[in-house]
Amino acid sequence: MASAREMRLRIKSVKNISQVTRALETVSASKVRKAINAVTATRSYATKAWQVLKHVAEQPGRDSLHPLLAKRESVKNTLAVVITGDRGLAGAYNSNVIRFTAQRFDPSTGSNPAPVKYIAVGRKGRDLLIRRRKDVIAEFSNIPAAPTFMDVSAIGRLAVDSFKNGEVDEVYLVYTDFINMGRQIATVKKLLPLELGGEGRVEEFEQKSANGPAAAYEYEPDQKEILDEIIPRFTALQVYQAILESQASEHAARMIAMRNATDNAKELVGALQLAYNKVRQQGITNDILDIVGGAEALSAK
Amino acid sequence: MTIRCEIVSQDRTVFTGDVDIVVLPGAAGEMGILPKHAPVLTTLKYGIIKVRKGGKEELFTVAGGVAEVQPDIITILADAAENVDEIDERRAEAARKRAEETLAKGVPADTDVYLAMEAALRKSNLRLDAVRRYRKGGMRMPTSEN
Questions:
Q1: How many helices (H) and strands (E) would you count in chain A?
Q2: Which residues of B make CB contacts under 8 Å with A?
Q3: Is residue A185 part of a domain?
Q4: Which ipTM did the prediction report?
Q5: Model's pTM, two decimal places?
Q6: Are residues B56 and B104 in the same domain?
Q7: What confidence category does residue B10 fall into, taking pLDDT thresholds of 50, 70 and 90?
Q8: Is there a contact between A41 and B38 if contact means CB atoms under 8 Å apart?
Q9: Which residues contact residue A213 at a Cβ distance below 8 angstroms, ignoring those fewer than 6 apart?
Q10: Taking burial as the number of CB atoms within 10 A of a residue's CB, which of A127, A148, A246, B47 is the most buried?
Q11: How open is the CA angle B71-B77-B82, to the nearest 5 degrees?
Q12: CATH number of the domain where residue A136 is located
């Protein structure tokens, strides 16, 4: 058994760690609240934007409407925008996203035979992707805590550009959907060519509209100009929304992970304390026995 | 007969309600939208959106965006929008000053920064304009000129 001194040090270090994890938990708790507010604040805009896009896509002859809506006949290259965090200590948050990505875009499963390029958002995701020897063409780290649309619009722009100039024929967005504090799910969403009702949790964005299939629009100033403006922008908006969802998920995951760590530390301290008390008591008993034994030996003379 | 009007900016819902007419600054000029209007998709310029219901008019500044018109609903996705009554004149003025000063210092190398600052300047000018034009003296605004 370890000495009492060693055990005292051990207890102290575990207590210190639990202090750190508790502090991290508290910080994450306040961050997650802010992140949830940010998600819900932009949700109404995202919902409406999605509706408008849906109406556009319902227009007759959508494939010829705009290059970003047109499906390519053969998919030679795929691009995946993978959103993770910059920091670890968030439970399985980062590794879940990467594991999901690896499965979804595994060339051997056949669902996605085309070679995949990656845009990594978040330092952890970049590191994990590079470790798995993936082709990372760009990375965006240090996304601010409450990003504005401007902060992240470059990501969407890059995706749209590489789709437009033919480098890739499909663009996917992998992010973590925030369901509630205890549940966050890695999800994939097809970004380009724009597809409605595809993979991912798009239904939530859709609201039932009373009017049936939309009549053809009048466009002002003209069709090309307006679609050129709104489709890339709404695509970037999807990225923005995904980042907000991911941030909320990250903070929630970190909070839960840290709470578990704090609980475990508490348990460990309890067990160690018990063992330490026993060792200490044993020492005292031994000392007393020594003294009593010594006194006995003296008085026996 | 009314038409539903929803104005949302990127961070909040600015206005929803059933209204008689909406006048918005479309890319090709002002357009008044009445119920049962044909479907239109238009970009918006910087300007004022007027929403009228039962003789009462509400005004919103809009700093660009997109409007989708369906026969029973108008959806306005504004880059930024504000009720004219809610504009804080002093803050708008300060923002304008700040933007002008930075722009006066010279053109920043980063195009994004430049565009953002230019947009900020245009936005605060628009807000100030709106406040001065429509809120003078007890803020009864002139009914639809244009």
A1: 5, 6
A2: 6, 8-13, 26-28, 31, 38-43, 66, 68, 70-72, 75, 77, 112, 116
A3: yes
A4: 0.71
A5: 0.76
A6: no
A7: confident
A8: no
A9: A58
A10: A246
A11: 115
A12: 3.40.1380.10
